[in-house]
Amino acid sequence: MSGRRGLVLGGGGVTGIAWMTGLLAGLQEAGVDITDADVVVGTSAGSAVGAQVTTGLPLPDLLARQLEPVAPGATVENLGTRVLLGFGWAMLRSRGDLEDFGRRLGQWSVERAAAGRTPTLEERYAAIRARLPVQEWAADRTLRVTAVDADTGAPRVFDGSDGVPLLDAVAASCAVPGVYPPVPIGGQRYVDGGARSTANADLASDCDRVVALTPIPRAVGPMRSAAAQLEGTPSVIFAPDAGARAAIGKNVLDPAARAASARAGRTQAARVADQIRDFWG
Q1: H/E run at residue 67
Q2: Looking only at Cα atoms, what is the longest distance across the chain?
């Protein structure tokens, strides 16, 4: 098979990073390396993984990092009741308008950060830096990192062509509304690309075939699923299987579930490798 190949890496928190890393590493072990895609689209957790693989970090090393013990006293964030209520409020008030939904989430996130209910920007940048040993856009790879303007709700795609540093782009894409502070870039403030879609798979629709890894496959309210976004584009979409869901647990931001999620992704890869191999070429 010929033509442009796209890899979509969706949002899903700390455990989503681990599951996708385990899956990609397991596929490579099976002789199927989909990180050589012509286009990589990263949203939230997927932006971190996308940045790692496009800047040439070896998958075995990335997997080993996911399997390391959690440092004592590591901070554990949570998509708790208050945060979920904030999402629900924005969804109800937006009445199906996706950009209005993003704007409401963005403004709510700005207010929570101003009230000191999120980590500081310095703390978030320290966490993102730790995930990105290489912090320069790859010159020979196409990586599209998604975010949402906190003031307007409009989507933004960073790809290195506009001078925005990779570190800033990934920090913005990972700025979960209500949990982490919005990230200022060029006079605007940005929140997680997941405020538009957990996958933003339509950004790979200019490819001839697409593999999408979606730690959170469901779509709610005005959002569209990866399957709906890729309608008409030859694609295969993978979400965590039963074993991976059990490993991930209820809090996708819990680093204690990271190693188990990575191992579950690696195990799942062995079962889907032949399917992806036939599709990927």
Answers
A1: helix 59-67
A2: 53
Please state, in angstroms and rounded to a whole number, the distance separating the CA atoms of residues 70 and 79. Answer: 20
Burial 242-255 (b: 16+ CB within 10 A, else e): eebeebbeebbbbb
Q: Copy the structure tokens of residue 242.
A: 């039963």
SS3 165: coil
Question: Measuring CA to CA, which residue among 64, 48, 19, 270 is closest to residue 180?
Answer: 48
As given in the structure block, the two tokens for residue 130 are 């730790």
Structure letter (DSSP) for residue 71: P
- Residue 21 near residue 59 (C-beta atoms within 8 A): yes
> Which tokens belong to 120?
């500081």
Query: For residues 170 and 33, what is the distance between their CA atoms, to the nearest angstrom?
Result: 23
Cα–Cα distance, 191 to 64 (Å, whole number)? 29
- Beta-bridge partners for 210: 6, 235
CA 45, CA 198: separation in Å to the nearest integer? Answer: 10
CA gap 212, 210 in Å, rounded = 6
| Tens-place pLDDT, residues 126-146 | 999 999 999 999 999 999 999
Hey, which residues does 156 pair with through a beta bridge? Answer: 147
State pTM to two decimals.
0.96
Sequence-distant (6+) residues with CB within 8 A of 123 are none
Q: Are 254 and 76 in contact (CB under 8 A)?
A: yes
Mean predicted lDDT score pLDDT of the chain: 95
DSSP for 1-60 reads --S-EEEEE---HHHHHHHHHHHHHHHHHTT--GGG-SEEEE-THHHHHHHHHHTT--HH
**How many other CB atoms are found less than 10 A from the CB of residue 274?**
11
Give the pair of three-digit tokens for residue 100: 């209005």
Residue with tokens 């040993």, as numbered in its chain = 133
